[in-house]
Amino acid sequence: MAAALTTIPWAAAHAQSTPTAVLPSVEVSAEREGDQSRKQVEAERAVTPGAVSVVEGEALRLRNVTSLTDMLRYTPGVWAASGSTGDSTFLSVRGSNLDATNYDGNGVKLLMDGLPVTSADGSNHNRDVDPLSMRRAIVARGANALTYGASTLGGAINFISPTARDGAPWEVMVNGGSHGQRQGRFTVGAVAGAFDALVTAEAKRLDGFRDHQRQERQAVYANGGLQINDALSTRFYVSSIDNDQQLPGALTRAQFNANPRAAEAAAVAGNYRLNVQSTRIANRTVWDIDADSSLVAGISFEEQKLYHPIVYSPPFFSLLINTTLRNLGSTVRYERRVGNHDFLAGLNYGRTSVRGGNFSYVTGGSETINTGVDNSADNAEWFLVDRWKFAPLWTAVYGAQIVSGNREIRNTNLATSTLRNPQSDYNSVNPRVGLIRELTPTSQLFANLSRLYEAPTLYELDDDVRGNNATLNAMRGAVLEVGTRGSHNIERHRIHWDTALYYGRLNGEILSRDDPKAPGTSLSTNVGKTIHAGIEALVGASVAVDGAGHHRIEPLVNLTLNQFKFQNDPTYGNNRLPAAPRYAIKGEVLYRHVSGFFAGPTFDLVGRRFADFSNTYAVDRYTLWGLRAGYSTKQWEVYGEMRNAGDKKYVSFFSVRDIAAANSAILTPGEPRSLYVGARVKF
Question: What was the pLDDT predicted at 182?
Answer without folding.
Answer: 95
